[in-house]
Write a structure and sequence with these properties.
Its EC number is 3.2.1.8. The chain is of the alpha/beta class and 359 residues long. It is built from 14 helices and 11 strands. The chain has a single domain, classed as TIM Barrel (Alpha-Beta Barrel). Bound molecules: (3S,4R)-3-hydroxy-2-oxopiperidin-4-yl beta-D-xylopyranoside.
């Protein structure tokens, strides 16, 4: 822009006017494009509003790199239905206001989840539980109608491994019907919102993916309003790439939107339970970081190769710095799973992912 203006100046003013000599180094250059500029689908980050407040380095990453934001915890039921009294919207309001001020797409995570199940809801019997789900979803989704683009309506409905449903309090109280019930309630409250079912390990546990897809197909056949499938995509360096590609293609065959909703890539292992970490890699090396960059590059490429453009809801990173990653605290590990290091500098992983978006 600036350059072309300077080139035009002599033409506009003709020879009667002498143009000032401009050193090339003085011409302002635009910032390098962020990930969201490189991609032709949304690129998201997960963050809590309180985390970014007062942290200008983190804020700069959020505003430059992402076009979509998900609250890490601010919109979960345990952040809203804190006790038996009225719902508390302090955290989700602050998050949605922040994301809107930043001009980002807002993604809602999550309406129903077994983890952190509010204790005061344990005593509800079946009928009261149905009543609660319907009124909770109606209140929350209506409050953000037209502002939240999409919701993870049910998170982790499938058992940790295999193809069965997870035994959650909702399943115990209501039975399998709680899932379509939640989608219908969300759709009534905001018919425009994109409604997702979201789960983990479905890129590598084929029995689990098949169970999830059977559930999705049953809902589609019954006319339940479901728009998308979320792959959390908390993967490991040894997660088979061909298998990831096949799983994405299989899910995309439903015709639904596909969201990689919580991406990170670890060097170590865990058994999917809190505290269940297995430390294999103690020290990060340039070679390991380069291998991770290649894995991030492959992931972006696999998404583009296996999900048709109209079904790409986007790729979202989960607490996208090694300083803030949830992996270390949750699994009691030391790992380096994200695009930014502990000093918030771009890692090779960042550049690998950027390559995968373009090449
Ligand atoms: C995690 C958060 O990152 C942690 O801060 C919190 O303590 C527990 O939840 N799958 C999900 C996310 O769907 O909501 C989880 O987020 C990570 C696993």
């Amino acid at each position: 822009m600036y350059k072309s203006l300077f080139l035009l100046l002599p033409l506009l003013y003709g020879s009667a006017c002498t143009t000032p000599a401009v050193e090339t180094s003085e011409i302002p250059t635009a910032d390098p494009p962020g990930l969201a500029d490189l991609a032709d689908f949304p690129i998201g980050g997960a963050i809590n509003e309180g985390r970014v407040r007062g942290d200008s380095a983190l804020l700069a990453i959020v505003s430059e790199e992402f076009s979509s934001l998900t609250a890490t915890n601010d919109m979960k039921m345990y952040a809203i239905a804190r006790g038996p009294g009225a719902l508390d919207f302090t955290l989700p309001d602050a998050f949605v206001n922040f994301a809107e001020r930043q001009g980002k797409r807002v993604f809602g995570h999550t309406l129903l989840w077994h983890y952190g199940f509010p204790r005061h809801l344990m005593e509800l019997d079946g009928e009261a539980a149905e009543g609660f789900i319907n009124s909770y979803i109606d209140t929350v989704v209506t409050r953000y109608r037209g502002r939240v683009d999409g919701w993870d309506v049910v998170n982790e409905a499938m058992a940790t491994s295999g193809g069965e449903l997870r035994e959650t309090p909702w399943l115990e109280k209501i039975g399998k019907a709680y899932i379509p019930m939640a989608f219908r309630a969300a759709d009534r409250a905001d018919p425009e919102a994109k409604l997702f079912i979201n789960d983990f390990n479905t890129e590598r546990d084929t029995a689990k993916l098949n169970g999830l897809l059977a559930l999705v197909e049953e809902m589609q056949a019954d006319g339940v309003p479901i728009d998308g499938i979320g792959f959390q995509m908390h993967i490991r360096m040894d997660t088979d790439e061909e298998l990831i590609g096949r799983s994405l293609a299989k899910a995309a065959a439903t015709g639904l939107l596909i969201h990689l909703s919580e991406v990170d890539i670890i060097f170590n292992r865990h058994d999917d339970t809190q505290g269940g970490g297995e430390q294999i890699v103690d020290k990060i090396t340039p070679e390991l970081l380069e291998q991770q960059a290649q894995k991030y590059e492959s992931l972006a490429r696999l998404y583009r190769e296996n999900v048709p453009p109209a079904q790409r809801y986007g790729i979202t990173f989960w607490s996208f710095t090694d300083r803030d990653t949830w992996i270390n605290g949750f699994f009691d590990l030391k790992d380096w799973p994200t695009l930014y290091d502990e000093q918030l500098q771009k890692k090779p992983a960042y550049y690998g992912f950027a390559r995968g978006l373009r090449e």
